Fold:
Amino acid sequence: MMNRLSTTINGITFKNPIIAASGCYGFGREYNELYSVGMLGGISSKGLTLEPRQGNKGIRVWETPSGMMNSVGLQNPGVRKFISDELPFMESLGTVVIANLGGSLIEDYIEGIELLNSTSVDFIELNISCPNVKTGGMALGIKNEVAYEAVLLAKKASKKPLMVKLSPNAENIVEMAKACEAAGADSLSLVNTFKAMAIDIHKRKAVFDNIYAGLSGAAIKPMALRMVHEVCKNVSIPVIGLGGIYCVEDIIEFIMVGASAVQVGTANFTHPLIISTLIKGLEDYCIDQNINNIMDIKGII
Structure:
C-alpha cells in the first residue's frame, strides 16, 4: 500500500508528518488510553531537564481568545527517570521518539545529551528558550551568538540528530536559524510560545507569579506560519513547523511553506482525539488531490 504521508528527516523516516509537540502530550500514556498513539509520526517528550523539576507555583494555565497561556516551568521527572521509567513505554509505541531537552546551564544540556546518547531515542530536540544564568538570565534562544555557542557544544556532544527548537522571541528568527545551522543543527523546529501577559483586574495583579507566560494556540498560527516560511527560505536543513495547528488545512499550509513535518500541541488539550483525526484527514486530502506523497507539495510557496 502506498504511504502517501511518509516523510524523512535527517535520515529517519516518519510514517506521517504529524508529531505530538513537547509539553502538550506528556509521554503519550494518557492519550494511548483514547486511541493508539503509535499511529503518530512521532512524539516529542515532555520537556526534560537534567534533574527533576516541580515547575512553577501559582496559576499555570490561562485561557485566552483563540489560545492558551502557560507557565508550567518545565515540570518533569529529570533525564534519568525519563530513561528508566518513561522511555520503555515510548519505545513500545512503534513511532519516532524525540527527547526534548531544556536546561539552565550549558553544562546541564551536555550532561543530559550524554545520558540520552546511550538510549534508543531517535532525535534530541534542544529547547534553547530556557534562561541561561551565565549570560545574566538571558534566554539562549534570544541572542544569535549565544545560541550558536550552545548549539555548537551540543552538536559536538550529541550522537543523535540534533533538532533545535527556536523561540519566536528571538531578535531575528532568520538570523537565529542560520546561526543554529552554522553551528551544526541537523534540523529546526519552530515556533515555541510567544511571550505574553494576563491581568486579573479584580485582584489587581498579574495572573502568573512569573508575570509573563507563553502564548500558544490558534491565535499564533499566522505569525508562526510566516516565521516558518522565512526560515525555510534561508536554511538548507529540514524544518518542523508548529504553532496553532488545529485542522488539516493548517498542516497543509505549513508544508506548502517548506516544513518537512509539523508538531501539534495546544489543540490536544481541547480536542484530545485531534491527532488521530488529522492523520486521516491528511490521507483523505492526498487521495482527493491525487498526491502520491504529501511532501510533493512541500515548499511550493
